[in-house]
Amino acid sequence: MANKIKFERDEVIRTAGQLFWQKGFNATSTRDLQNAINMRPGSIYAAFGSKEGLYSEAIKDYAQLMQGQLITALNEHESVLNGLAAFVKKVLIEDAQCAPSKLCMLVKANYEFTEDEPTLKLLSTDLANKFEAFLTAQFEKAQQYKELDTKTAAVEYARYFQIQFTGLRSYLNRPNTHALAGPLIEQMFSSIKQL
Amino acid sequence: MANKIKFERDEVIRTAGQLFWQKGFNATSTRDLQNAINMRPGSIYAAFGSKEGLYSEAIKDYAQLMQGQLITALNEHESVLNGLAAFVKKVLIEDAQCAPSKLCMLVKANYEFTEDEPTLKLLSTDLANKFEAFLTAQFEKAQQYKELDTKTAAVEYARYFQIQFTGLRSYLNRPNTHALAGPLIEQMFSSIKQL
DNA sequence: TTTGATTTTGAGCAACTGTTCAAGTTAAAA
DNA sequence: TTTTAACTTGAACAGTTGCTCAAAATCAAA
Q1: What is d(CA A19, CA A176) in angstroms, rounded to the nearest whole number?
Q2: For residue A1, what pLDDT is reported?
Q3: What count of other Cβ atoms lies within 10 Å of the Cβ of residue B21?
Q4: Which of A63, A87, A138, B26 has the fewest CB atoms inside 10 Å of its own CB, making it the most exposed?
Q5: In this complex, do B111 and A116 lie within 8 Å of one another by their Cβ atoms?
Q6: Architecture category of domain B59-194 in CATH
């Protein structure tokens, strides 16, 4: 007894997310979004409430997608550290060409949002903390498997990993640095083992 | 034979820079700037040409200020590594409270600008490269003073330093992480020495 | 085939954006 | 004191922004 929704919600969120990831929240206009997802303002606002609402869905989707990629990489390797390295290589080398940005969308959010966008600042912080918790669990596993020393707490490994990963992505965002990706990833993991 | 300029150019650039540093380029409106520097549009555009022009001056000023702080820290310490550590501590611990942002304005620029802002993207890249060159020179000095092994090239030390520093600042931008600053800086420098 | 709840459309609003420029103000030089 | 080039002012413009809402389109149920 009604008209049916004519768009695939997940697909729309994914496409909008690609734009947001590339240009950031502020630099993405609602007209940009309308064109990208091929929806008129009325439909967008009926489905997502606001530009902020759509962005929220998009960044949550991104975080879930990333965690999914990490889980896949971990499943494909016996060693936790090898799984983590495979994930980092996939993101920084394979996906680097086709992804909307070389930077992590979560970190980009962390850079963009200040106290005058409290909702989105909080959301990005929350997603980052959840990712850290997931990483910590993985490093605990690595310690159980005797891959890493237990003198350093798992959460410290997780922090160190994120600092390395974020710093590395930021550096590789500069022009003409692609060739450095491989060696710098090696360096990253050898320094993790030395922690 | 004229009216005199009534504003201190350097002071205006500094104040505008603080706003840009805090909110980013896109989120800072020209009205925000007008209020902050207490100038009317006509004067601003006569002096700086455009919002981009003012931002350019501001980010160049920031880079120079930072390099000045680093030089000061290096002069106050016999050891290059101790000088670098003092600089990092000053930025991440002392200045962290009062600075407009916990993040580096150059890196923030690197995160914000895409190919549709080619001028500012290029400028931020250029300033980052110049900072790397300066850092490389310092690590060369550290090697000459036998503070660091010469097996690793100075430019690799400089890259590693930047990756650590950027990653660390990004991490410390998260809420409730201030207490971690000290230990993480120690960790950073012990890992540099192990490189 | 009609009904009616639901979704889609897109013109358009009010606020904000970066920027311009004619008019006013200033102060050194004549 | 007058002149005049330089600087400041702020109203206003044209374009963009996020968003609304009445009207049109849609389709399952009656």
Answers
A1: 24
A2: 52
A3: 21
A4: B26
A5: no
A6: Orthogonal Bundle (1.10)
| A–B interface: beta-carbon pairs under 8 A | 103
Q: Which of residues 9-28 of A touch B (CB under 8 A)?
A: 22-24, 26-27
Q: DSSP secondary-structure letter at B8?
A: -
Report in angstroms the alpha-carbon separations of B83 from A55, A81, B71, B76, B132.
43, 34, 8, 7, 16
Q: Both tokens of residue B175?
A: 């809420």
For residue A95, CA distances in Å to A18, A190, B27, B123 come to 13, 23, 29, 26
Distance separating alpha carbons of residues B18 and B12, to the nearest angstrom:
10
Tokens of B71: 């030089």
Rounded average pLDDT over B123-147: 98
Q: If DSSP states are collapsed to H, E and C, what string results for A52-66?
A: HHHHHHHHHHHHHHH
Q: What pLDDT digit, counting tens, does each position of B103-113 carry?
A: 999 999 999 99
Q: How far apart are CA A45 and CA A179, in angstroms?
A: 44
Measure CB to CB from residue B128 to each of A125, A128, A174 and give the nearest one: A174
Please, how many CA atoms are within 13 Å of residue A182, restricted to the half-sphere of its CB? 2
Which residue in this structure is represented by tokens 């100038």?
B39
C-beta neighbour count of B94 within 10 angstroms: 10
Domain residue spans of chain B: 59-194
Crossing angle for the helix pair A154-172 and B154-172, to the nearest 10 degrees: 120
Residue B6: pLDDT band (50, 70, 90) is low
Whether domain A59-193 has CATH 1.10.40: the reply is no
* Structure confidence by residue, pLDDT tens digits, B58-91: 999 999 999 999 999 999 999 999 999 999 999 9
